[in-house]
Structure formats: structure tokens, C-alpha cells
């Protein structure tokens, strides 16, 4: 059985959604972030970064980082079709989008949400400048995704859903905390509607008391 460590309102929902999609036995432990449970000695043995999510695999091995968890789960259950196998022609493109979402879109989004983590204790003007620059880059990344979906959608890999799509949907959800609206991009908006309608997405959202759309 898989054991997922997550917290409400975090990217851990992406792993929860994928576990629901796979229809495999799992359990979730929701950490209390306000009580700093993620920094407890017990949890730091699982994820020394003190962040969620983290996943204990069926063989007892531990993995953390959302994108790594998603790819690991998809590869462990190829029958679900949530990632192209290594020998398939679409595998490089799939990995490209996973890394793009993590290293470009998500990382830059974090600079916009938490500019102080990037530049430290500086004036509010400096923080605003960092935030503004990050949001401009976020918009440029969304334009790249929008153009790809317009040409090749409705999902990253055409008509096949993958964990890259779940990763994007959850990143768009986090983006709603900024002034950027992913739904201003018509093909991304259509994409989000399709992801919202997936039964396993709805099940995971209901279990986490999420009403309405993801983003």
C-alpha cells in the first residue's frame, strides 16, 4: 500500500489525484502545517526538506518532490496510461513538459508568491519588482503552453491525459493566488474544464473538501 503525506491546499493534491486515477490501495496522512508538523523530527526522517508531499512506496522506499512522485506512480502502473513508457516516441516530449512545469512555470510562480525567499529582507519596492518580473515570466510560460494546446491539445500529449496534465492543473490552481488568471487563455481554460470533469479528479477534490473548479 502507498502512504502519501500531504496537506490541505498544497501541491500534494496532485499525487492524491493520481493515486485515485490508478485505483490502487493507499492512505493519506494530512500534516498540520499551521502546527509545523512538516518540521517535526518524525516527518523530517521522511522528507528532510520539511515539505509536502512525500510518498512511501509499496516496497517501503520514500520519494518526495511532486513531479518525481507523479512520474514514479505513472511508470509503476503503465496500464493506466498516465505516462508514455520509456520506449515510446512521446516519452521525451512528456519529460520536457514535466521539467518545464517544475523548473520554469512552478519555480517562477514561487518567486511571485514568496519573493522574500529569493531576495531576503529587503524593501517592499524590491519585493514588488521581483514579484512583477516573476509574473511577467509566468505569463510568457503560459503563452507557450497556450500555443502548444491550441496546436496539439486538448492535453499536452494530444487526446491522452498524463500526469503532466495533472501537474499543470495544480500549478494553475496555485497561480490563482497571484494576479495571473490561467483562464484568460482560452485553450488552457478548456483544458482546465476537462481536467475538472475527470471522475478521479472529482473524487480526490471531494475527499479534500474542495468545492467548485480546481482553478
Automatic annotation (TrEMBL):
InterPro entries: Glutathione-S-Trfase_C-like (IPR010987), Glutathione-S-Trfase_C_sf (IPR036282), Glutathione_S-Trfase (IPR040079), Glutathione_S-Trfase_N (IPR004045), GST_C (IPR004046), Thioredoxin-like_sf (IPR036249). Keywords: Transferase. The keyword Transport does not apply. The keyword Transferase applies. It holds the Pfam family GST_C_3. One of its GO terms (molecular function) is transferase activity. Residues 1-81 form the GST N-terminal domain. SUPFAM superfamilies: GST C-terminal domain-like, Thioredoxin-like. PANTHER family: GLUTATHIONE S-TRANSFERASE GSTA, GLUTATHIONE S-TRANSFERASE-RELATED. This is Glutathione S-transferase. It comes from Aristophania vespae.
Amino acid at each position: 500500500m502507498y502512504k502519501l503525506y500531504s496537506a490541505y491546499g498544497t501541491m500534494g493534491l496532485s499525487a492524491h489525484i493520481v493515486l485515485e486515477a490508478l485505483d490502487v490501495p493507499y492512505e493519506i496522512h494530512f500534516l498540520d502545517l499551521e502546527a509545523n508538523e512538516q518540521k517535526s523530527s518524525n516527518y523530517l526522517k521522511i522528507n528532510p526538506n520539511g515539505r509536502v508531499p512525500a510518498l512511501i512506496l509499496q516496497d517501503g522506499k520514500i520519494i518526495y518532490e511532486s513531479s518525481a512522485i507523479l512520474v514514479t506512480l505513472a511508470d509503476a502502473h503503465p496500464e493506466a496510461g498516465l505516462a508514455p513508457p520509456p520506449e515510446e516516441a512521446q516519452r521525451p516530449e512528456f519529460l520536457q513538459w514535466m521539467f518545464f512545469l517544475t523548473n520554469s512555470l512552478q519555480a517562477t510562480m514561487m518567486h511571485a508568491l514568496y519573493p522574500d525567499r529569493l531576495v531576503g529582507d529587503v524593501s517592499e519596492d524590491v519585493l514588488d519588482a521581483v514579484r512583477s518580473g516573476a509574473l511577467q515570466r509566468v505569463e510568457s510560460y503560459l503563452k507557450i503552453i497556450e500555443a502548444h494546446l491550441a496546436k496539439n491539445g486538448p492535453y499536452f500529449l494530444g487526446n491522452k491525459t498524463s500526469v503532466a496534465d495533472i501537474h499543470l492543473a495544480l500549478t494553475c490552481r496555485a497561480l490563482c493566488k497571484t494576479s495571473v488568471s490561467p483562464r484568460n487563455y482560452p485553450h488552457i481554460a478548456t483544458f482546465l474544464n476537462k481536467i475538472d470533469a475527470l471522475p478521479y479528479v472529482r473524487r480526490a477534490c471531494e475527499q479534500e473538501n474542495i468545492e467548485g473548479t480546481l482553478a
